[in-house]
Amino acid sequence: MSDAPVVAVTVLEDRASVTRRGTVSVRAGQQRVVIERVAAGLVDKTLTATCSGARVLDVRCERYLAPWRVETTGDIASLRAERTKLTAARDAALAKVQAARAETDALAELVAASLHDLAVAATRGAGPDGAGQELTRLDLADAAARVRRVDAELEAEDLGRALERLDQRILRAESQAGEEAARLVIDLVADAASDVTITASYVVPSAAWRPYHRAILNRETSRIEWQTTACVWQATGEDWTDAELTFSLERPSLGVEPPELADDELHTRRKPDAVVVEARDQEQQTTGLGAGPLQVPGIDDGGLGLRLAGSGKITIRSDGAPHRVPIGGFTGQAQLSLVAIPLRSPWIHVRARIVNTGPMPLLAGPVDLIMASGYVGRADVGFVAAGEKFYLGFGPEADIRAHRDETRERDDAGILGGWNVQTIRVAVRLSNLGAERREVVVTERIPISEVEQVDVQTSAADAYLLGEDDQPGGEEITQVTARALDERGLVSWSVELPPFGRRAVTLEYKVKSQRGVAGV
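Structure (tokenized):
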């Protein structure tokens, strides 16, 4: 038998390529080497073996079914349940250690500050009453905290050693129960007795990885720290212990045969008498600002087929649980702005314009958003090439509010013809509840007509002004009329809100349609 541990793993989207390597002493002539404890689900046609110093004649995977032992299986289940409890107790002890360390550090800072205050008072000839009792109380509290810290550390060490012993018992029980039911059998020929290195590779299912990002924003300095990790799952039946992990975006499951084209038949139909108009939302894609992630199980890699290496040797247990492996990141400067889209939400959102300054592209996936207050939410990012810009939202700004009103007036065409005219007026009022000046970019939308029977006309910026009846509480609101209108029908205003101030923006447009047009 030979001990050939897993030394390298290439994880793909839905499988993994495992490489085992070990050294064994061989004699001259033909002989057989057996590698135990391999994944029983490995794909036989992908199994290969090489040997330095000898010639490989054959390699195969042998699977066997051990005799069923009910009592041993029950023992394994009880041992695994005990391991779960012991792991929870060990984690609780580690939490106690961290709490005790934080307590002792805080008490040490408090004692140092108290001694500093006493020294300053002594230089001024003052002696505070009860200083000795307070210092004694702090010393007692510090001694008690140190005792709790030592007890927690000893408890964590004892539980850790007990967990190691329990793992050994589980391995022995699994070996006796016959759960390891696969091994590699390698026949080789050596010209002389020597130590040779055997390398075996195979592909296993039940393994996958997906990109996962973490964005940490410092609003004071507008600094963004981006971390990219590979979230790995594997339940192959073998642990990857201290292995070099590579995460690949190659797709062997796509096959090698090109697809076939089917017939595309065209049919004619009678032109309808009336024109039916339907309104639809058109998603705007902006080149260079990161498109949204594809709603598919795979990974959007921009067609590059990347290979990303994990840092150092990593251990991934065959437990089906997610494991995070760092694979990249960058630190850069973000451009922060406040944006309002009242048609969608009454909140004012913090948006960061980020440049991917890292050497590798960002893969589509979820992003954990972190600010000074901690975790603030989760967003998605699309495929972003190196050097590309993209936007990322960091949640609403609590100090600013937006209120939107919309009114519609319709003027139908007369008997002699004409156009149906629908006038839409939109008013957005902004309120700043904070003591700092803020600048908010407000965006509204007007429809775009694709047929000649419907015409959309945008009124002048000052065509709709708020009157006295539109001022809540009788307080006059300053109205901002400077705006920008693009070809996509997006209207934007840059509004400066003074401390505890209010501003308003208005929009008016008309939708004209010919008689006989339905849906408008």
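The longest helix spans residues 70-123. The chain has three domains: 70-177, 208-252+284-398, 412-520.
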